[in-house]
Amino acid sequence: MKKDKNRFDWIKNLDDHEITRLANKADLPFQLSEKTKYKVLTMIMNSDRIASEEKKSSRLISKPAFGFALSFAVVFLIIISLFSIIYLTKTDLFIFQTNRSKFMVSSVTGEAFRQKKNGEKSALKTGDEVSENSILMTSDRSVLELTLNEKSFIKIDENSLLNIDKLYKKNETTDTGLSIKNGMVSFELAELNRESKFEVETGQFVINVVGTDFSVKVTDDGSSSIIVNEGEVNARIKLNQEIYISLDKFKKEDAEKLRALIDREISVKKEQQIELNDKEVILLSQLLLEILKRVSYESSSEKIYEKFNIEIKNFNELKDKVLIEQTAVKEDKITETDQKKAGTSDDPDIYSLKFSLGINLTERETSVTSDGTLMYVTSDSNKKIFCIDFKNSSQQWAFFDADINKFTCAPVSFQNKLVLSTPFYIFAINSSGRAVMKKAVDKGTTYWAGIIKYGNKLFIPTSSTVFAYDGNTIIALPDFPETIGQIYLTVSGSNLFCSVPNEKKIKIYDIKQSKIVWTSEDLNQRTFMSPVVYKDEVVIIDSSGLVYKINYLDNSKKTLQLDAGVVSQPLLYADDIYFIANNGYFYNVSLKNFNNYAKISKIDNNPDSNKYLTKKILKYNKNFFITSDKGTLFQYDLNTKKLKEFFVNKEGLPLISTPVVINGYLYLIDSKSNLYQVVLK
Q1: What does each C-alpha distance from 128 to 87, 185, 309, 523 come to in angstroms?
Q2: Residue 33 CA from chain centroid, whole number
Q3: Smallest Cα–Cα separation from 467: which of 446, 452, 448?
């Protein structure tokens, strides 16, 4: 009966890995718990007793076939018992099944997919539920937005890959674990209670969050960055596992103390950013291993801890140096090196090359605007709005929507939102770059007509009417006649002055009376610009260079013919208007005398009217600032009436759109998306 005894040797020789493999053959979606392993191994160790009893029974059995059947039944019983124990003792499986939390897909722009661990892939749509063990992917120019428990929001940008590793909820306690493999994911998380956990993992970081507004970006080269917009997050660097293995050389209590020091978390606060790549992690891991080797020969636990505490303090200072150089809000100090990078000028200490977005921009159909704190670059060629934070020299977010086939309007900051009009939709975008309002319109804004503010409302000109937006509702102006083609607006008093190029007319809409109160006679040519209001007169220039000055009270009219057509929006200062003509020259016309014009100086080599739809003249204090395709920023002093080169791009790259002013600094961007800071004195 030696064979009978050996029937159970394979069971006794099973290790943890083999037991788990056996269980997984039944497609059980978990690993064995320690409790289960103990019960199974106890059962296996009792197999000798089972075999012994079987041996005794075999004396009563004379037929070999019956003995073999009985032996097979015993083995089968053991296997069945194994799986029964797994299901009965794995009580957290039952809890997991009944307390599974789910993400809800709130919005899909473009294409987004869910892939299960078995490789099965399916397209996602609004309203779908996404559970644990899912892999989420977005395609080019696509955005996926999720909600969790109706309180937290996640936005997955284009070409991103997010794993949902853990999604557990019991009563008010949640445990969420996500890992970002590539791309950018933004989070707006409701505050968690003490028992709950929300963890985001990348190749370099493990991020613990208690509820805040932040973004995590993983680039193609594997580096990770964390950007905090509101609140605070704690991040731990994922050091080499060899470090933790080396702790086994120490006593248990010493190892625990050392681990606590090694795993010290980094606190990332509002308006801060940290970034780390694989090379930096390897460097930090190597340094830490060297430290552990130096202290491992100490005999006394106290000495080990004391020496390591000193060493780890030095290590953490080095680690912080790698990170905090990017984390801390930098002081804007201009160096001679910065000046050499930036360009040349009469004043050599006023420029700094900040950083680059790493994209190419076109002079046509790219606008640059600001809310006084952040800069917004709207690029039709990239089909995105980029939010730039100069304080931290970083890109905060990039807005994309698949329904925007063309960007044709500069966004405007209004009530902590960014309002944008396109040919078919009007959007309101929040501070995280997420659309919180999206209204479909039949004929939206084209030709970069500007949205204007009046009181507590925005007025949005489109290709058929004008919409009013108060931050909550958006409606077409009552009794505003449908127009043919794009409208351009100026506000003065309670009147909207409307230029309608295709109709070759100017109209005045009284906001209080909600009606058109004046319409001009037909102009000779179309006018792709907003009217200029001067006293009781409205001034506009048509495409042939004919300047109209019309009194809207008595309908009297004067005209002045220029030697060139006008490409830029005229800007009024005192009794004069200033603009750039299609010959590249900067002009001035006196509205008081209105009998001549001044051709001041050449500004641009290629004054294309399309690029001047977004290339505005900036007025700041008693100066005009004008960018050109020569890579030069011009300054026109309104007191001295002199024009000079204020900044010259060293590479001669065209300067894009309009410069903006933030906290006393002037900011510029060139065609390779290099961003410059200029000190205004």
Answers
A1: 30, 19, 51, 55
A2: 40
A3: 452
The sign of the CA dihedral 44, 45, 50, 55 is positive
pLDDT at position 339 over 90: no
Q: Is the distance from CB of 154 to CB of 163 less than 8 angstroms?
A: no
CA 446 vs CA 332, 407, 408, 487, 610: distances in Å? 38, 8, 5, 9, 12
Residue 484 three-state SS: coil
pLDDT higher than threshold 50 for residue 369? yes
Strands (E), 189-223: 197-201, 205-209, 213-218
Residue 329: its pLDDT value, please?
31
Collapsed DSSP state (helix, strand, coil) of residue 50: helix
Q: Give the lowest-confidence range in 23-37, 49-63, 534-548.
A: 23-37
| Band of residue 350 on the pLDDT scale cut at 50, 70, 90 | low
What's the pLDDT band for 321 if we cut at 50, 70, 90?
Answer: very low
CB-CB contact of 611 with 364 (8 Å) = yes
For residue 31, which phi and psi values (nearest 5 degrees)?
-100, 155
- pLDDT of 25 > 60? The answer is no
Q: With CA atoms as reference, report the closest residue to 262 among 232, 233, 241.
A: 241
Q: Phi first, then psi: give them for residue 435, nearest 5 degrees.
A: -70, 120
What secondary structure, in 3-state letters, does 107-136 show?
Answer: EEECCEEEEECCCCEEECCCCCEECCCEEE
Tokens of 54: 């079987």
Residue 241 CA: distances (Å) to CA of 199, 317, 503 = 19, 21, 72
The residue with tokens 């897909």 is: 105
Under a CB-based contact definition with an 8 Å cutoff, are residues 438 and 451 in contact? no
**Beta carbons within 8 Å of 94's beta carbon, 6+ residues apart:** none
3-state percent breakdown (helix, strand, coil) of the chain, nearest 5: 25, 40, 40
Residue whose C-alpha is closest to residue 151's, from 189, 185, 178: 189
Q: Are 541 and 527 in contact (CB under 8 A)?
A: yes
With CA atoms as reference, report the closest residue to 264 among 284, 293, 294.
284
Checking DSSP bridges between strand 384-389 and strand 375-379, what pairing results, if any? antiparallel
Burial of 126 (0-12, 13-18, 19+ CB in 10 A): exposed
Look at residue 150 and tell me whether its pLDDT is greater than 90. no
pTM of the full predicted structure? 0.56
- Give CA–CA dist 505/552, Å, rounded: 12
HEC string for 338-378: HHHHHEECCCCCCEEEEEECCCCCCCCCEEEEECCCCEEEE
Cβ 161 vs Cβ 136: under 8 Å: yes
CA distance 390 to 668: 11
Whole-number Å distance between alpha carbons of 596 and 539: 15
Is 397 within 8 Å of 430 (Cβ atoms)?
no
Lowest mean pLDDT segment, chosen from 6-15, 73-82, 436-445:
6-15
Q: Which residues contact 159 (CB under 8 A, 6 or more apart)?
A: 138, 139, 140, 142, 182, 183
CA distance 289 to 292: 5
Q: What are the backbone dihedrals phi and psi of residue 672, each rounded to the nearest 5 degrees, phi first?
A: -100, 15
* DSSP secondary structure code for residue 38 in this structure: H
Where b means 16+ CB within 10 Å and e means fewer, 145-159 reads: bbebeeebbbbbbbe
Q: Which of the pair, 681 or 520, is modelled with greater confidence? A: 520
